Amino acid sequence: MTTSSSKVEVRVDPVTAFRAFTDEMDLWWVRGPINFHSDGGRVVEIRCEPGVGGRIMEVLDDHTEGEVFERARITFWDPPARLEWESCVDDVLTTVTFLPSDEGTVVTVEHTIPDGGEDRGGTSWSRVVPAWFGAWCAKRDRVEHVRRDIARLSLALTYARPVAAAHWLRNVFGFASVDELPATEEHEAWIEFHVGNAAFHLFAGDEPVSARHVPWVYVDDVHAHFDHAKRNGATIVEEIHGFAGSPVYTADDLEGNRWTFLQARPTMR
After folding, report:
1. Do 2-139 and 153-263 agree at the fold level?
2. Which of 4, 7, 11, 157 places its Cα 20 to 30 Å from the Cα of 20?
3. What CA–CA distance (Å, rounded) separates 10 from 82?
């Protein structure tokens, strides 16, 4: 058996923290290109059903009648102190506790994986809750409670040392990272910054100048867009393929500048 955990202290009482964690999951869950287990181009809502037997799920295409991708099933529900769930995508068991503190509430996320079990993303909660839920609790009393998706246009930046570049961009230009930045260079690290509702991502590589700053454009129908671009002279660098469950392709324009096109979610304006 293996275990892992994380915690964050939020400046709200346990009742509010528990309600915000469960009822407002769709507000604090950060939307991005890799933040879903199902088809990221179809997700319209992250929903947590209350009570034992309730589902944590991704709703696809339509809020009321859409298909549902079940991520977890709640096995223990004791507001405002604790809830537990079993993952539907792997063998991870998760417990979240809400303990009162001098500043408000300490929220602790604990994961358990039985011997021989697999982790296919179930432990991601302990990585995202401190940053995403903590940030939501810090601002939820002064912002409108509406779902916020990222913009249709994002940017991918390639650096020889993306972690060093990320720290520089944060410290010098003041950009805010979605997650805690890695301390050392990691080839597979996902580094995402948001400026308003626009996003840019840092990757490792030694690309030509034309491919170091790549616009990411979310389109309504990526398959139709691909067919049109190919017929009309775009140089296809990568055919349509799955990227975190959503279709994407990459092409060069007439002067060799690189573009990536992704399937837009229905909630993207």
Report:
1. no
2. 4
3. 16
Segment 170-222, tens digit of pLDDT: 999 999 999 989 989 977 789 999 998 999 999 998 888 778 899 999 999 99
DSSP 52-107: TT-EEEEEES-TTT-EEEEEEEEEEEETTTEEEEEESSSS-EEEEEEEE-SSSEEE
C-beta separation of 191 from 201 below 8 A: yes
- The token pair at 205 is 């590589």
Q: What are 207's two structure tokens?
A: 């690309």
Q: What ranges do the domains of the chain cover?
A: 2-139, 153-263
Other beta carbons less than 10 A from residue 269's beta carbon: 7
pLDDT at site 208? 81
CA 86 from chain center: how many Å?
A: 20
Let me know if domain 2-139 sits in CATH 3.30.530.20. Answer: yes
Find out whether 120 and 107 touch, Cβ atoms under 8 Å.
Answer: no
Based on its alpha-carbon atoms, the radius of gyration of the chain, rounded to whole angstroms, reads 20
108, 5 contact by CB (below 8 A): yes
Give the global pTM. 0.89
Is domain 153-263 in CATH 3.10.180.10, yes or no?
A: yes
